[in-house]
Design brief:
By secondary structure, the protein is of the alpha+beta class. It has two domains: about 325 residues, Bira Bifunctional Protein, Domain 2 (BirA Bifunctional Protein, domain 2), CATH 3.30.930.10; about 90 residues, 3-Layer(aba) Sandwich (Rossmann fold), CATH 3.40.50. Helix content is about 30%, strand content about 25%. The chain contains 16 helices and 23 strands. The strands form six sheets. Strands 3, 7, 8, 9, 10, 11, 12, 13 and 16 form a nine-stranded mixed β-sheet that branches. Strands 20-19-21-22-23 form a five-stranded mixed β-sheet, sandwiched between helices. A three-stranded antiparallel β-sheet has the order 4-6-5. The radius of gyration is 24 Å and the shape is globular. It binds one RNA strand through strand 8, strand 13, strand 16, helix 12 and helix 14.
RNA sequence: CGGGGCGUAGCGCAGUCUGGUAGCGCGACGGUUUUGGGUACCGUAGGUCGUGAGUUCGAAUCUCGCCGCCCCGACCA
């Protein structure tokens, strides 16, 4: 993908080597209709070794960890993101993404791109600032209220920082699509949005500026549009699963976007903002490795039926009578974090904005649309809420900023230094990029840092084990350790990440 | 936007009531020590006390205004 290479000059060592933590995607082509290419963002996804590669060593990295809890953070994900040096607040609900947070953000973004393109959806990029006139066409300029950040440029033109993109994508569509032959079409982008929340809180979970994937389908009729809706549901299930999350689709209320068909995806967590009621057997449903043909309407609808058959609703649509029908042993109430939502809204935007196509028999009809969002930046918080302990974050392998950490217990000792560098090189040769803690710190301090930042695996290298030719491989999640040769450790890590 | 709270060193806080020119812990830096779970000791650096005005011989401290942030509520991916 040479076209993405050019972007790499933004980054020095960090941006370039970040590329390689993301293994080449292995996407089955049968379902997708386009080659799967994710936009670059300065990330080369090519597998070939880079020149001038820099080892990710902690003494040369930027990881401002905090030993104590910042006073402003109330919930665990916010506390850990601050303590693990992932984010820094710049204003209420607005954050800088420090290197560690940025890596995870990009990793999540990457998974979203891959799964969208696997489903046949086409990436593009729309601006953050939009002209108000587009929103006057749909009538939402007045409807949206104070949540929309309105800006005036030097020529006194009304602009806004987009909270969503239905109007703009409809404008793009109507400018370029005239025929039913161009359908079905789903365009999506991952872009920063702004909603001027009255009270931002919980760190990136409820920021004012947030990164969101939003996709829009254009179809000839309602049936085709509902297939797009189902396709999104399945692709979202797969997306969340790859991130190590159990996100349950729940029937939702439509809100300001409009439409009858809508589901929200919720991750169960005590700190969630939504009250949820569900049959707990939904949490056992998994997509797993099954192959899905996204063009097969019946197959996709079948998967949706499987995942929505059991009762699962938010308080907005809660139906007490239906809930009572769930066997008592499986009846659960709790809280959830909303990490995505899909809508079918028909011709709500295409009609007033004149987004029409000509049918085979020469008629001109408005297209049927839906929109589909994933809260990308919010997912960082949701994942941490769902995966942590009292020592810190526990990253699922799918989204971890580094696959493994190497801890050198005796920095400066020729044998341990050499063993660590050997491990590093061995892992790099397998396409994995470890984080090497080469600081001159006590073992306890190094372990505490590793636990806090939550890499799923740790290789500990000390003189004691090395005397017997062994290093120690430890799982962050279980805490279990196993002694083995460095070569075996490399092989084990490579095996764990194979296919990711 | 209504209600409450807080702004003092990078982080967590004391000092404010009762005005006298700023302190503790962690962190950082330099040593000694230690070396498989945030070691111990010695030393060093670091502060427009959010901001503006006022009262006073003198303001972190009292008065008024402004700004920012946090919490509860209503609102939201």
């Amino acid at each position: 993908m040479p076209q993405y290479r050019a972007c790499c000059r933004i980054g020095s060592a960090i941006a370039i080597s970040f590329a390689d933590v993301i293994p080449q995607a292995r996407l089955p082509r049968k379902a997708g209709r386009l080659p799967c290419q994710a936009p670059g963002f300065g990330i080369s996804r090519c597998g070939s070794p880079q020149k001038h590669e820099t080892m990710m060593r902690l003494t040369r990295y930027f990881l401002p960890v905090l030993k104590e809890n910042p006073a402003e953070a109330q919930i665990v994900s916010h506390r850990y993101m601050l303590r693990a040096g992932m984010i820094k607040q710049q204003a209420a609900g607005i954050y800088s993404w420090l290197p560690m947070g940025y890596r995870v953000l990009r990793r999540i973004e990457q998974i979203v791109h891959e799964e969208q393109q696997r489903a046949g959806h086409v990436p593009l990029l729309m601006p953050t600032l939009q002209p108000a006139d587009l929103w006057r066409e749909s009538g939402r300029y007045d409807d949206y209220g104070q949540e929309m950040l309105r800006i005036r440029d030097r020529h006194e033109r009304d602009m806004l920082y987009g909270p969503t993109n239905e109007e703009m994508i409809t404008d793009i569509f109507r400018a370029h699509v005239e025929s039913y032959k161009a359908l079905p079409l789903t365009l999506y982008h991952i872009q920063w949005k702004f909603r001027d929340e009255i009270r931002p809180r919980f760190g990136v979970m409820r920021g004012r500026e947030f990164l969101m994937k939003d996709g829009y389908n254009f179809d000839i009729d309602k049936e085709a549009a509902l297939h797009a809706y189902n396709r999104h549901m399945v692709s979202y299930l797969r997306t969340y699963e790859r991130m190590g999350l159990t996100a349950i689709p729940m029937r939702a209320a439509s809100g300001p976007i409009g439409g009858d068909n809508t589901h929200e995806f919720l991750v169960l967590a005590a700190t969630g903002e939504s009250e949820v009621f569900y049959d707990d057997r939904v949490t056992a449903l998994k997509l797993g490795q099954r192959e899905i043909n996204y063009d097969d309407r019946a197959e996709v609808a079948g998967v949706c039926a499987e995942f929505t058959r059991l009762y699962a609703r938010t308080d907005e649509t809660h139906d007490v009578a239906a809930f009572e029908a769930v066997p008592e042993a499986h009846r659960k109430a709790g809280r959830g974090i909303e990490v995505g939502q899909i809508f079918y809204f028909g011709t709500k935007y295409s009609e007033p904005m004149g987004a029409t196509v000509v049918t085979p028999d020469g008629a001109r009809v408005p297209v049927h649309m839906g929109s589909h969002g994933i809260g990308v930046s919010r997912l960082l918080g949701a994942i941490i809420e769902a995966s942590h302990d009292d020592k810190g974050i526990i990253w699922p392998e799918g989204v971890t900023p580094f696959p493994v950490g190497i801890v050198n217990l005796k920095q400066g000792d020729a044998a341990t230094d050499a063993a660590c560098e050997g491990l590093y090189a061995g892992l790099r040769a397998r396409g994995l990029e470890p984080l090497y803690d080469d600081r001159d710190e006590r073992a306890g301090a190094k372990f505490a840092t590793m636990d806090l930042i939550g890499l799923p695996w740790r290789i500990t290298v000390g003189p004691r084990g090395l005397a017997a030719g062994k290093v120690e491989l430890t799982s962050r999640r279980t805490g279990e350790s196993e002694e083995m040769s460095p070569e075996a450790a490399v092989a084990r890590i490579a095996q764990i990440y194979e296919g990711r």
